[in-house]
Design a protein that fits this description.
about 425 residues, 18 strands, 11 helices
Length: about 425
């Protein structure tokens, strides 16, 4: 049966919304919207009213594409102040058959989320493995305990929390726009869900997401997030340099970078030029090779800062690095990664129909992660009613209260 999901990612630079259909184990893009953010700085909301206006603009845009208003959504939460902790717990199996069910898996996860500071909010609990107990003794440790016979079920999991004020701020803005928040997903976890491969699931690996104003570095051990850090440096400094050197506006600098920029001089054409206007309206001719040197210098700087932060986050050897962010759509980035990190770093290439740009990695991964959680809980869920889904199928525009905020969202799957 077809299910439809929506994700809202409110970034410092851009608000992105994705509506995706899941059918026969495949995802298909129904609509996507991307609107410049205002009222948010370095992942923190500074003006709710201004941000709300921009969010409504994005919602109106994506709703117009499918002819149906967005009523429910997943939202992503930035990892700037995230804290991670390894937790353990176990619960008795109480059914007559002593067989582990989805409800038991939920119970054991719920059993380890009690020791959270009052000012913190749980946004993710990721099972590492489960232990089967019989007569007080450990029988085996496995990834999926469903249908196993035992008298107790144990869990080892990684718990991620962020300041409650951060979660409340994002949820408040989204709900003020008339959208019910169904779940929260930490941005690095959403990123990993989208880009994961067999290399990333082995040993210690890292994701580096180069945003406009910030760069997020997250560490994963065998596919489980262990740490993250957000650096206050991003691709905006490249726009600033282009604007200063060629005496253009920031908007023109950004456009020049996106339409004509190359990340490495080795990839640039010395005879190729791009004409634009400076701040006085005077015609400016920009050589691609010279522009690539400007871009390369700053991109290397960003990646070197990220490289140093990796050493702070872990003392283990990193086997694989995936670099994400809109800047990675630029030709030649892999050459830069090789210069900075050697052969262990790669750029992720989006291959989902309708969202082939790197800027949509987080929203796409968030929906995939949500669907995985639904399956683990043995649930079926869609963010659109059957009537709405029927309208989407026939639409010509189709393209292609507890004290804990999290507890209210989590109850969709624990209590129902």
């Amino acid at each position: 049966m077809k299910k439809i999901y929506t994700c809202i990612d409110i970034g410092t630079d851009t608000i992105r919304i994705l509506v995706s259909e899941y059918y026969q184990r495949k995802f298909r893009t129904l609509a996507v919207s991307s609107v410049r953010s205002k009222g948010i700085k370095n992942g923190t909301i500074v003006d709710e009213n201004v941000l709300l206006e921009r969010l409504k603009l994005a919602l109106d845009d994506v709703s117009s594409r499918i002819n149906i208003p967005i009523k429910k959504a997943i939202i992503t939460i930035p990892a700037g102040e995230a804290e991670y902790s390894l937790v353990h717990g176990n619960v008795p199996i109480v059914n007559d058959e002593k067989m582990v069910t989805e409800k038991d898996i939920l119970r054991v996860q719920n059993a380890v989320i009690n020791d959270i500071l009052p000012n913190m909010e749980l946004v993710s609990i990721t099972p590492i493995d489960f232990t089967i107990y019989e007569n007080g003794s450990e029988i085996e440790t496995i990834k999926d305990p469903k249908n196993k016979i035992c008298d107790r079920l144990g869990i080892r999991a990684m718990m991620a929390c962020v300041p409650k004020s951060l979660v409340v701020g994002f949820a408040k803005v989204v709900e003020s726009a008339g959208v019910e928040v169904v779940d929260l997903i930490l941005s690095p976890i959403a990123d990993f869900e989208e880009v994961q491969n067999e290399d990333l699931k082995e040993g210690m690996t890292a994701l580096i997401n180069v945003g406009k104003a910030t760069t997020t570095i997250s560490m994963f051990n065998k596919g489980i997030i262990t740490n993250s850090s957000v650096l206050k440096i991003g691709s905006r400094i490249i726009d600033d340099d282009i604007s200063y050197i060629y005496y253009t506006t920031k908007k023109i600098a950004r456009k020049t970078k996106e339409n004509f920029g190359v990340a490495h001089p080795r990839y640039a054409n010395k005879n190729e030029t791009y004409e634009t206007r400076d701040v006085n309206g005077k015609l400016v001719s920009i050589n691609q090779y010279e522009l690539s040197k400007v871009i390369n210098k700053r991109l290397v700087e960003i990646l070197n800062v990220a490289k140093n932060e990796l050493k702070v986050l872990t003392n283990k050897q990193i086997r694989y690095i995936m670099v994400l962010g809109g800047i990675t759509d630029m030709p030649g980035v892999n050459f830069v990664l090789e210069d900075v990190f050697g052969p262990i770093a790669r750029v992720y290439g989006m291959d989902t129909l309708g969202i082939r740009k790197a800027r949509f990695i987080t929203v796409s991964g968030a929906i995939k992660h949500f669907v995985k959680k639904i399956k683990l809980r043995g649930k079926e869920y869609s963010m659109f009613s059957s009537d709405d889904e029927d309208s989407l199928v026939h639409s010509k525009t189709r393209i292609g209260r507890s004290d804990s905020v999290f507890g209210r969202f989590f109850s969709y799957f624990f209590d129902n």
